[in-house]
Write a structure and sequence with these properties.
The protein has 237 residues and is α/β, with parallel strands linked by helices. The protein is built from eight helices and nine strands. The strands form three sheets. Strands 7-1-8-9 form a four-stranded antiparallel β-sheet. The chain is globular. It starts with a helix and ends in a 14-residue tail after the last strand.
Length: 237
Amino acid sequence: MTMGKKLKAMYEKIDRNKFYGVVDAVKLVKEGAKGRKFDETIDLSINLAIDPKQADQQVRGMFELPHGSGAKVRVAVFAKDAKAKEAKDAGADLVGADDLAEKILAGKIDFDRVIATPDMMGVVGKLGKVLGPKGLMPNPKLGTVTPDVKKAVESAKGGAIEYRAEKTGIVQVKVGKASFTEKVLAENITALVKEIIRVRPAGAKGTYLKKVSVSSTMGPGLKLDLAEFGSQQVKAA
C-alpha cells in the first residue's frame, strides 16, 4: 500500500525508536492530524505482561476520563416503572424491558452501552449470545448492572470508558479527539495509564507495564516514556 504524503511527512518527523514524554507525543500526534476532514480519534495502546486467559490475570473495568473521550455514546437501559423514567430523565437513548429485548433479538442494535437494573437480568440474560460477543452484556463489576441507573447513564454520557485486555494482553482505548487541547489529552492519557497500573491483577509477575503508545486514527504510533507514570509501580515488589 502506498503511504500518503501526509502520513509520510509524519513518519519523517518522529523517531520510531524514541520514547516520548506524554506532552511531546500528544503535540506530534495532534500536528499529524491537522487538516483532516474529520476530527480524528486519539487511541492509546497499552501492552501488559499478563495472560488474560488466567482468572487471576484479567484486566477489565470502567473508568471516567478526566475530560471524557469526546465520543457520543448511545445508551440502552433495561428498566421498568420509576427506574425507566429515571433512565429517560438522565438521558438514556433507549429504555425498555421485554420490548427492548425483542428489538435486540431482531437485530436492532443501535447503541454503544447497555445498562440494566438487577431485577431485569432475567430478561437481559436471554440476550447473552447477542450482546456478549459485542462486548455489550451488562456486568455488575463494570457498574452496568445497578439500581442507580441515573448515575450509570450520566457516567456513560459523561465519557466513562470501558477498558479490557485482549487475548494478547493489550488494552486499546480511545482517550479523546484531535481537537482536544494538548493538556486535556495528556491528562486523560496519564490518568488512564495510572488506572491500569492501579488495577494490576494479583497473578501478574515481573514487569507488568511493557509498552504504551499513542496514535491518531490515521497516524503512526509513538511510544511513551513509562517513567512518567511512576516506574516504581511497573515492576512487581
